[in-house]
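chain below, 236 aa
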Amino acid sequence: MPDKFDIEFDSNTLVSATLYRATRERLGVTLILAHGAGSNQNSSFLVSFANNLAARGVDTVTFNFPYMERGKRVPDPPEKLEACYGAAIARVLTNSHLRSNKLAIGGKSLGGRIASHVAASDDQTAASIAALIFLGYPLHPPGKPQQQRVKHLPHIRVPMLFVQGSRDAFGTPKELEPIIKQLDAEATLYVVENGDHSLTVPKKWPVPQEKVFEAVQDRIADWLRKRLTTGTSGSA
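prediction:
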């Protein structure tokens, strides 16, 4: 069963979090995954990914941002979201079960974007981050490709894995490719063919949705293993 715990965000705020312990040979990697703008850590998407990554040897942690903890639908200001993510990292780093693990962070859509800002900051928290995982990076608002959210990405110095649906309205792989190529840090793009922003494929797609997600989870676990446990680098 997952372990429930709280994260003290500030003196007046606690947010809930969940640790999904690796259920097979541990990779020695902790992955923190934050939720998207419209759903909390108990969304079927995040719970499924956390459970299945744990089954692949990755200790996985999810948590709620403050607005979701309060049951609100409108996200907190970016500064508050980033501070909450930083508090989650600090809490994970002091967990006795996870203390010796290397740390990767990321999330779905908004959660991944906030993780990227934390990793790009000059805060000492960024020094503890070894890799980033984006599940549908929100490159721009739908229909507004000119409003790209990329200025901070060149400041990230650790490997990044972008998992992007080929028909993502928030930014297609073709839009991401030229940006990724300009980054100094290693950045890998994994395309979910015919996937949308939530990596969901059409019902008539020849590959079942469950198999699509399993392929993504396999890729994440393999990528983390190669980057953080064997020292291998490259585009694989």
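The beta strands are 3-10, 13-20, 29-34, 59-63, 102-108, 129-135, 160-165, 187-192. The CA atoms of residues 48 and 213 lie 9 Å apart.
thats it, cya
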